[in-house]
Amino acid sequence: MKYKKNIYNKMDGYLIGTLIGLFLSLFDLVFLGLTKEIYLGNFEKKWLLLACIGYSLVPYIFYKGLNYTSLTILNLSWDITSDIVVTMAGIYFFKEYLGYTKAIGLVLACITLFLFSADDIMLHFKTNK
Predict the structure, then answer these.
(1) How many CB atoms lie within 10 A of CB 89?
(2) Mean pLDDT over all residues of the chain?
(3) Is residue 128, in this structure, part of any structural domain at all?
(4) Is residue 40 part of a domain?
(5) Distance, CA of 74 to CA of 76 (rounded, Å)
(6) Within 10 A of 54 (CB to CB), how many other CB atoms are there?
(7) Domain that holds residue 72
């Protein structure tokens, strides 16, 4: 599959897909965090509309991300980075508990994310010598 030429000529699409996935996961962090705050009663329910409107930007960003990588890589990168970022927010900001099995799963998610981008990261360093 051929993708449109992008400004990141020395980095391949998988790394760009991971970065776009990280950007999309920040939307998850902000708007799912806001939703949790509303649920806890820290904000009025009318703020849920802001979360819905903000989250509606995700399909457009995802669409633009397809210029750089495949649907599969972009979606997996988004899902995995979102799992990591939102889980960390749950632990640190909302004092949620993560058991041993789930913690192992989170570590494996980090390894998976690295493996998706490893070839492209190595290629980037080899071409920048």
Answers:
(1) 17
(2) 83
(3) no
(4) yes
(5) 6
(6) 13
(7) 13-121
